Automatic annotation (TrEMBL):
<feature type="region of interest" description="Disordered">
    <location>
        <begin position="1"/>
        <end position="31"/>
    </location>
</feature>
<feature type="compositionally biased region" description="Low complexity">
    <location>
        <begin position="273"/>
        <end position="290"/>
    </location>
</feature>
<feature type="region of interest" description="Disordered">
    <location>
        <begin position="235"/>
        <end position="354"/>
    </location>
</feature>
<feature type="compositionally biased region" description="Acidic residues">
    <location>
        <begin position="235"/>
        <end position="247"/>
    </location>
</feature>
<protein>
    <recommendedName>
        <fullName>Tetratricopeptide repeat protein</fullName>
    </recommendedName>
</protein>
<feature type="compositionally biased region" description="Acidic residues">
    <location>
        <begin position="298"/>
        <end position="339"/>
    </location>
</feature>
<feature type="compositionally biased region" description="Basic and acidic residues">
    <location>
        <begin position="248"/>
        <end position="272"/>
    </location>
</feature>
Length: 354
């Protein structure tokens, strides 16, 4: 029986998790973009194929079956949890499936690994999903928000307007959307979505006549951009240049060297670790005898290669899902002494598209 890392709060490491979902036979893993494939090459061959195929399944199912897509992303994270692209996939699928706490934690981890704030709008929307619109507004006013590109600033403004609406500040919601990108005479890829969000905010503020004008302009922008039912999907392969590839390879070499150093410490630490391993094995054998459960065979699809150990206390405390909080209460027996935030599902609000 697997002995989980108690400090790893991800769903991928919960003792009651189900086995990894099945992968479609036609999936090879080569369907991924070049940048993601480049990251996955740093894994061992058997793990690399496992991670790649589950990531393809997560992308394939994201729109139609987000919960199953989330399970595929979790499966990929069991062997590729130190890769930015994997943590990003877990965050996106968790967000799509409504697991806002888990999504927030994964996006924070992605930001630490990659140094990118590109998912700041989705993180702010996760705060809304967790019933914390004030925190969403704090993100919208943060220094990191100033570094977003134009589409990112639009998405963050839409989230901020939604947070104002959550607080019943409807005039303020209109103001949040009055950004430089709101230009009625020009159409960009983000314009139809921004125009409709602005129209909805105007309607909520009791300005229906103005809202109608912006709704019409959203249709005009779509037609100008060739969007809508006849839109042809854009397939873009963002290949890395040689300098970026060299920097990434150097970073991965440093990570592997650090991991190797962690796995082979001084001999003075080996004896205690061996004793701990023996004790864990004895406890595992006893548990198997009592429950009748068979251990996961080494080398099988669900055998654990390693665990991600969280180093972000803020994320861990802020993003624990509701059922985990309930379990913690039951174990401590101190329900009356503890006040927990209700993370029940929020009312429908406008999501963020990445």
């Amino acid at each position: 029986m697997r002995v989980p890392n108690a400090r790893d709060l991800r769903s991928a490491n919960r003792p009651d998790r189900e086995r990894s979902p099945q992968i479609d036979e036609d999936v090879t893993g080569k369907e991924l973009d070049r940048a993601t494939q480049h990251q996955i090459k740093t894994l061992e061959d058997n793990s690399a194929e496992w991670v790649a195929r589950h990531l393809v399944m997560a992308g394939r199912l994201l729109d139609e079956e987000p919960e199953l897509a989330f399970q595929h992303a979790l499966a990929a994270s069991r062997r590729g949890g130190r890769l930015a692209s994997v943590r990003e996939a877990v965050g996106l699928t968790a967000y799509a499936a409504g697991h806002y706490g888990e999504a927030l934690r994964e996006f924070r981890t992605y930001r630490r690994i990659s140094g990118s704030n590109m998912h700041l709008p989705v993180m702010a929307d996760c705060e809304r999903g967790l019933g914390r619109p004030d925190r969403a507004l704090d993100m919208a006013r943060s220094e990191e928000a100033k570094d977003l590109d134009a589409p990112g600033k639009v998405e963050l403004a839409i989230v901020a307007a939604g947070a104002r609406a959550d607080l019943e500040q409807f005039d303020a919601a209109v103001s949040e959307l009055e950004i430089p990108q709101l230009d009625i005479n020009r159409a960009f890829s983000y314009s139809p979505r921004l125009f409709r969000a602005y129209a909805n905010a105007l309607t909520a503020a009791g300005r229906a006549a103005e809202a109608t004008k912006w709704e019409r302009q959203a249709v005009v922008a779509e037609n100008a951009l060739g969007l809508g039912a006849e839109e042809e999907p854009d397939i873009i392969d963002l290949g890395w240049d040689e300098e970026e590839e060299a920097r990434e390879e150097e970073r991965q070499r440093r990570l592997r060297a650090e991991e190797a150093a962690d796995k082979h410490p001084g001999t003075e630490e080996r004896a205690p670790r061996a004793a701990n391993a023996a004790a864990a094995a004895e406890a595992s054998g006893a548990a198997e005898a009592e429950t009748g459960l068979n251990p996961v065979e080494e080398g099988s699809d669900d055998a654990e290669s390693d665990y991600f150990e969280s180093d972000d206390a803020e994320s861990d405390q802020d993003s624990v899902e509701a059922d985990e909080l309930d379990d913690a209460d039951a174990e401590s027996g101190s329900d009356a002494d503890q006040e927990l935030v209700d993370h029940s599902a929020p009312a429908q609000h406008e999501g963020v598209e990445d």
